[in-house]
# Entry
Amino acid sequence: MVAMIALLRKAERTEMLPWVHAGWLSALLAGVVTWGLATWVITISGASRELTEGFGSLLAAIVLVWVGIWMHGKSHADAWQRYVREKLGHALSKKSGIFLLGLVFLVVYREVFETILFFAAIWNQGSQASMVAGGAHHLVRGRLAGGAAGYLSHAAGRGCTDRHRLGIGDRIRLVGAFASALPGKAVSALDSVRAALERHQIAVYFAAVVQGFLTALAVPGTAQWEGAINPALGLMLFVTFLQVPLARLRDALKNTRFMGALLVANFLVVPLLGALLLPLLPADPLIRIAVLFVLLCPCIDYVVTFSHLGKADASLLLAATPVLLIVQMLLLPLYLGVLLGAESASLVKAGPFLHAFGWLIVVPMLLAASVQAAARRWAPAARAADWGGLLPVPATALVLLIVIAAVTPKLGPALKAAATALPFYVAFAVIAPVLGLLVGRAFGLGVSAKRAVAFSSAMRNSLVILPLALSVPGALPVVPAVIVTQTLVELVAMLVYIPLLPRLSPR
# Structure
């Protein structure tokens, strides 16, 4: 601003000065309005508030880094003068005071908006009194600390001595300090969002199912969305595997008693239960194979969160998830062959099955393992892995929405198949956790470890296994409808398990 005013006076174009002053005054007024809207008019609470603060801080960091680079490019006096002359000359050549006002407004409002991005994050953290007191203290001393120091010291340049004025280099250093501090606050806020999503994931998933159904009713042609199922599953599986501690495989194997109970419950007792209940299902091979795909594969993702809410030892389950994933993939073809016999050979073709297994299980797992390995040595990868913790719940909700929207137009046969599997799933949800508790007791596990085995026995890997089930010829719409039905029954069962299992296994 000082440079623009000086050049106008040097060019003897003082008649343009009122437009300059109108521009920066209107920008400051717009900044005050922006602050008021962001602070008092637009109310944000709960997880939405944390998400806004987190992404706002990240945006502020990005903007401030960009401004730092922009400042650095203009830090040399000659380059700076050329820049101002170019912009100012363009405005004067048009002989338009309104254009000059707009130029000044945009330049100043950008600075004001960047300042609001930074201070609004602090204000929303409940530090209003500290901000006011600090601002008053520095105003009394004649200078402002923080991000506004460079801007206001130049705007008031004539009233400041060189000793109190911050140069461009000082402003660049301040910008760098702000940019390095903001991502930490952002990650803290996003961690709160992750915890809130995990606590309320049942409601999120049911909302996704309802939204998928309503979308199918309102939007024609959602049956074509089936082509988006595999990409959505690939994303979901990548962010899910990103939360699985693949590097802790060795630690999990050391706890032989718990691991033995977990393997016996999931790969011996539960398959036997499935074999006993299988005659209750209709003879339709698609319904049977869909049910077996689900019941033969223990959950590896949200079982950790729900077991923690149910006062089980979630850390043991977290360490065991790589083992559960590997063993279920190895045993699934064997169990399908034993329980279905010749039907298995006609439905599970090696080519499509291996293709789905490779692209939708192995590739996401290897990518997740690569990110985890890089995170141990490279800070940006570690931050990316942390932020990836936000995505499993939204990604799972996205899969549910797409599957429901794609299946609903073909609801006739799918609805009948899901209805026939429903009593089977309810019986499994009642019996499986009790069997898990009994296995834990037989292995002499502690109370929280027994609860962990019970949760693992009851919760299945429905959406993780969905891409493999979709490789079955003619899978749509029956197979995904039957598998998603199990997910819905399981989510309802969680509302019972979380308060009930601690009572069934008291200390």
